[in-house]
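Archive transcription. Copying these from loose printouts into the bound notebook so they stop getting lost. Printout 1 of 2:
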Amino acid sequence: QVQLVESGGGLVQPGGSLRLSCAASGNMFSINVMNWYRQAPGKQRELVATITTGGGRTSYVDSVKGRFTISRDNAKNTVYLQMNSLKPEDTGVYYCNALTRYATDYWGQGTQVTVSS
């Protein structure tokens, strides 16, 4: 079992920044990949960023490349999503997701990000 708790969401003006955190606990050694997803009102959940727990390889959806950075602190069992130059279309609930070597996945409860003036 893996437990994920997100934090760091909030209201920010366009052009601003936020850093989301995802604290993981439980069977950490089973996790292969950590993801950040988001879901805007009336839209499907979208994969935003990915980081592998081994080599630290990252990937991003095109709409956030150059603005968002996913990183991890293995000592703290925490994954971060640094979001800069935020736009209104970045608004949504952001979810942390963990994929394990056993082909199971776990989700956090989500944190709301609202970009508005």
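Printout 2 of 2:
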Amino acid sequence: VQLVESGGGLVQAGGSLRLSCAASGSTFMINIMGWYRQAPGKQRELVAAITNGGGSTNYADSVKGRFTISGDNDKNTMYLQMNSLKPEDTAVYYCNAHMHGSGINYWGKGTLVTVSS
């Protein structure tokens, strides 16, 4: 499975961005997809996750009510709509795919989100 993120950039506090993650390869074996982020000097953390088919979602407390994760199975693409962005949301955002059966995790290369105050 290959994952390619896009949509990052520089935005002012209070603004919005939409990240995309395009998946290719054995996408039918994907069980859960998620967005993680890693800020400078910090550990990578889960931001949001969604089950294949979109039946269940999960969010970090810090983004609940501001971020929305969604997926388009026809396009093999996952999205993260980020609203009311804060400077503490600044990080590299990574797309993750967790495979059914093997449990292997695939990662994209990341996209940088910078929120200015």
